[in-house]
Every structure is written in structure tokens, then in C-alpha cells.
Design goal:
two-stranded antiparallel ribbon; nine-stranded mixed β-sheet; alpha/beta; Glucose Oxidase, domain 1; EC 4.1.1.112; binds oxaloacetate ion; EC 4.1.3.17; 6 helices; binds magnesium ion
Length: 203
Amino acid sequence: MTDAARGHGTATLYEASAEAARACDPALRAAWPGARVAGPAFTVQGVGGDNLALHRAVAEAPPGSVLVADLQGARHGHWGEILAVAAQQRGIRGLVVEGGVRDTAEQAELDFPVFARHITVVGTGKDHPGRFDVPVRVGDVVVRPGDLVVGDADGVVVVPAEAVPGTLDRADARVLAEQRALEAIRTGTTTLEYYGLPTGPGA
Ligand SMILES: O=C([O-])CC(=O)C(=O)O
Ligand SMILES: [Mg+2]
């Protein structure tokens, strides 16, 4: 399956979205270096400190989706190697969680992308089933089922489903424009010249 964001990075998508995209709190970040995810959100409303909702979500979410879970920022390791392997078996692309995760070295080895507020060893209960396919809040952003969720080294961006086609087309154009800028800069043009920026105080 092709990359749901055409390979574009979060910064490009954010800028190209014409203010439709929302940037998650920067404290919500990749749990291991190099993690990247892009796909439609499968939303999970759970209870902090309990991960039954995540175990259920892995069994319910459609292949190609990204789990987006609100666990209220709880400092528990709600997700780890076992759930990552289970998710990969079901074709789930990754996890964005308002809460904590663990087993991050193992998940890097698996190449399973995870974005979380905390990394912590503390375990969880398995009592609350949670709810799926409802709007959830992660990183101070409301995510609706089917919104495009993209995470990379710069953070997590959410593009509302209806804004995705226009955002991706403008992102393509933006990358071409930046390639032209980089060519000029590499041959000695200053960024001030290229962008026509003022050159000094009072200019
Ligand atoms: O205990 C859990 O369910 C979370 C975890 O560490 C794993 O998935 O490996
Ligand atoms: Mg574990």
C-alpha cells in the first residue's frame, strides 16, 4: 500500500494544509528515533492506566489504520512489544497515544511506529473495554475517526479527512518549490535574496 501522506513530512503537510491541519503538543513524540506513520485514524477512548481498550482495538481496527488513543496522559506503559507484534499481524500501521508506552527498543527493532507522551515501565490494568470510533483528544488536538494522522521526527499532525486531497496536492507543489529554492541556495543565492526578505534593521 502506498504512503497515505505520499511520503510528505509533518512540517510540509502542516504548512500545505491552509490551516486545516492541527499540530499535536510537541511533548507527544516518536517513542524511538526514525519512527514514521501515516494513515487514517481508528480512534480509541480508554481509561488511563488500563489497556484493555488497546487489546480490543488491535482486534477491531481495519488494516491500514493508525490507532489513536486517549488515555488521559497517564504515566503507564499501555503498549509494548506484545501489542506491537499483534498490531503488525493485523496490518495496523502504528499508534499515537495520549499516555505512556514501553518496550521501545523492541518496537524500534520491529519497525512499529509509536508516538506517545511518556516512556515508562509501569504496567496497566485490563478492566475497561473503552470505546471506538468517537472523537478523541490527543496532544491537545481532537481527532475524528478517519482523519489523516502523520507522525515523524518533528511530531504528530492531524489533517481532517475532508482536507486531505487538497493538502496532499499543495504539499506536492511545496516540495517542488523547496527543491528549486535549495538548488539556488546551494549555488550561492542567499535565503534573503531568494525570498526577497529585508536585509537589515530599518530596511
Ligand atoms: O502489558 C501490556 O499489555 C503492554 C506491554 O508491555 C506489551 O504489549 O508488551
Ligand atoms: Mg511488554
